[in-house]
Structures are given as structure tokens and as C-alpha cells.
Give the backbone structure.
Amino acid sequence: MKNENREKLIEILTDICPDVDFENEDALIDDGLIESLDIVAIVTEIMAEFDVEINVDDLLPENFNSVDAILELIDSKKD
Amino acid sequence: MNFISVSFIVFLAVTVGAYYLLPKKYAWCALLAASCVFYLWGGGYKTVLYLVFTAALTFFAGILLERLNDKKSEIPKSEKALHDGITKRKKAVVAVVCAVLFAMLYVLKYLDFTVNIFVSLISAFGKTVEPSVPNLLVPLGVSFYIFQSVGYVVDCYRGKYKAQHNFLKYALFVSFFPQIIQGPISRYDQLGTQLTSPAQLNTDNLRDGIQRMMWGYFKKMVIADRAAVAVTAFFRHYDDYGGAVTAFSVLMYCINLYCDFSGGIDITIGAAKLFGITMEENFKRPIFAQSLSEYWRRWHITLGGWMRDYVFYPLSLSKPFGKLGKWSRSKIGGKFGKILPTTLATFIIYLIIGIWHGANFRYIAYGFYNGLIITSSVLLAGVYSGAKKKLHINSDSRGWKIFSMLRTALVVYVGRYTTRSPRLIVAFQLIIKTLNPLSLHIHELWDGTVIGMGLSLSDYIVIGVSTLFLLAVEFYEEKRGETVLSVVNKKHGAVQFAVLLASLLVILFFGIMRGSYISSEFIYKQY
């Protein structure tokens, strides 16, 4: 299930930012690889695909710096 | 008190002296006292009440939100109804603060404008009205301190940090004198704690602060104030000139605006550094932006960041936008359906940024212009990418990057016609005049017309050479990722002193002893 979610997430992310290497990057926000427009697009897509509620308070750099961080955020919202 | 005055330099020197002479723990009191004097001197006692009111309202709101956050954390998550009740109360606090402060900003800056629109509309139907709009003084830096205080309240709502419980310390954060005129718009967790930390005298900070201020004075006094003379002369009689001089004057205005605003920010950041305080950068060499959205991430960075965190994110993730997203996905589908809400939110942000600059159709049009270009480039990203592939264009090639930079500079340049023209219709007339070969009158560039705009040939040479120097410095910093000043500071002390002396002489000869015209106020002071 975890692998499935990971693959699904990477598919979403690559669709929005095709030039970013999501498998290996761990400072997506800190290094400016994804910007505010992308973040909102990613969050909207995640909410629709994973059926979770992400609000503006969750939009912290540490929640979006890597695929693992985003997966953690999604998991925390499923609890 | 103008940054470009002897009185400011003396005032700053006295404040630095007092700051380091006071017991370390109470050094911040010198900054607060200086901020009060600076504000009363520059803004007058009549408008200081707005500042005190804003500080008091947001101070108490911060404490209230912190209490509600604490209360919420004590309640188990299973008690959903109680949690929701507290969230509602928190939202109400933020809503009241925002409503009161933005209503105040509206009355001070925009009431006159909207009343005039209504009067025009009514008179179009053949009726005349004479409204009595109070002639209110716009307080110094009002939109800057309101935005900064609202940011603090929203951060307290989000539990980003603990509220400040000492009103005087908080008042210093709202009124810190180097930034009150034109920002940057600071965050409490970045600036607030630095302001009240015990003072530590450090000669590197004093050196860095003086160097940064000198760089700012160079931009403002040698370039911006000179270019402003030609710009003012042109827009006073814009009908008298052809398209070529119009294009030249708008270019002068672009140079004037960048050097004025970024120079002012350099002075602000340098002055704060004298107290060991590191402020947020507000510019990142916007001339090297390869797209309009990147330009706005490099120009007035703190306003863009504020808009992103406190307007764009909440708006994009709000319930109405969520509903719009669901609707557009199911009814429109495809990429357009997915990004429609984000694009709409982006458009709204640029419209707000435009209106923030002033109560005028010119600024609304400017926001509309930026919003339209950025949102259409988002919507058409797939088309552009496909076209680039077909034409075998490598986005990473130097040629494409230079082309993208020039294209962005041109887009920004055209937009500047609207912000400087006295009326929107005039901006359109001037653009048409520039584009029409019959009204170009290119000979005016060398037949003495340009020289007749208040500047001598040597003034234009000074502007040209200084701007090229500025571009060379920015090019180096962009390429190497380090500032020229940091490179200078790695050299021997004698080299550092020589650079400082040379800067002082340049400012003295080309900035202060330059002729009959006087230093103008900072352009962003009016915002």
C-alpha cells in the first residue's frame, strides 16, 4: 500500500513539475525547485486523489521538501 | 526625516551610540525611543495614533490567539465539538482584526478614489452631487505596518510562535524606524526577536552596515535622483515629445524606480545592520528574471512572500475555491480544469498587488496586466513546451536564457508606462506613440531635446556609466552567488578602506555636489 501511494504521489508530482527529480531531491522548497503555484496544484491534487483534507496551516516547507515528507503529511491526515 | 539628509546621519549615529552605551539588556529601548522620534519627526503627531492603534489591536489579538491555542492543545482531539468551537473563535479574532485594519487602510487610501468613481457615475446620469470626503492625512508607512501586523496575527493564529507579551517590545517590531518608510515587510519570528536581543558590539556589523548604506546612497543619489529629473520633466510635458524620447524616458523611469526602491532598501538593511540586526532581503537582481512570475519573486520579495502566505495560500485552499476546483475538474476536465482555481487565485493576487500600489485605475490596470500575462503563461505552459520541442529549443542554453531575460525585461518595461503616466489613457497614448513610426521623431534623441529635460550630457554619462557598473556588480553576484562586498571584505584592511573611501568620494562628487536639483523623496514612501 505504501509503495502504491508513493508511486501515485510521484506520478502527481511529475505531472505538475516534469523537470524535477522527485526520487532523489530532499530540499524541494529550500532549494526553490517547487514554487507556490506548484504547491497549491500539488495540494489540490493530493486532496482529490488521496481523499484527505490539507489546510493552509500545513503549508510548511518541512512538509513539502521531499516525497517522504509529503507522504508523512498525507498519512497524518488519514489518522 | 529623509534618509538622504545630514539630520538622519546624525540621528542614526546618536542612536547607534545610545544602543551600545545602554546596558545590553535594555539596548532595545534606544531603538524604540529612536523609532518614536523618527515617526513623530517624519509623520507628525496627527498620524501617530493610527500606528499606536494598529500596534495595540494586533498586540492584544496575538495574546488572545495564544490563549486560545493553549486551550485547544489541552483538550483531547476526541472532543471535536470543543476543538471546532475554539477554531471558530480564533477565526473570528483574525477576521475582526483584518476587517478593522483593512477598513482603516481603505478609508485612508482608497475612499477618495471610490467616492470619485461614484460621483462620475452619478454625473453620467445628469445629476450632480457634492460629497464631503474628509481630507485625511495618509500616515507614513501605513500599508507596510498594517501588513506586517496582520502577518503577526495570522502567524499567532497558526501557532507559528508565541505571542509577545511586552507591549513596548511589540511596538518596536511594528515601528522599527529603518523599515517604516518603505519596508521590507518583516516577519515577527525573523525580526522581532532580533530587535530585543541583548546588544553585541561587533565591528564587522558596523563595517557591513556602513558599506551597505553607501551602496544604497550610490544607487539613490547618483543614479535614481538624477534619472528622476528627466522623468519628471518628460511627464510634465509628455505631449511635446515624440515616441523615441517617450521610450527613452520610460527607460529612465525604470532605472529611477529600481535604484530608488532597492537603494532605499539597502540603506534600511545597512542601518539595521549597525545594530547587529539582519533584515530580510527585498530584491534579488530582478533584471535576471527569465519570466514575469520570477521577476515578482525577485522584486519586492517581502510583499510577494506576504501575499503568498497570507492571501494566495488561504484563498487557493478556501472552501469556495475547493468547490470551484471540483466543478472545473468534472465539467471542464484536462489540465485547464485542474489548474483553473490556482490560476484564478494568482490573477486575484496580482490585481491586489496592483491596487496596493495606489488608488488609481493605472495601478488596477498594472495589476490586471501582470495577472493576465502570468495566468496565461501558466495556462499555456503545455503549448509553449510543445512549441519549444518542435523548434528544438534547449531551455538550458545560454541563448534561450538571454532571450527569456530580454523578453521579461520588455514585458516589465511596457508595464511601467501605466504606473508612471498621469492617467491610464495617457499611458495607452504614449505606448501607441512609441509604436507608431510616424510619431517616433527619433532625431529628438540627439537634437538637444533630451538635454533640455533638466540634465546635462555629463549627467546622462554619469547615469549610463553608473548603471553599467550596477549591472556588472549584479551580474557578478548572480553568477558567483556571493556579494561583491563580501569579496572586498576578504581582502586586506587597506583595500577595504580604499573601497570605502572611493565610494564616499563618488557619492560626494556625483551625488551631493551635483548641481541645482535636490534629492527627491523615495517613490515607495507613498505606498
Chain B touches chain A through 22 residues (CB under 8 Å).
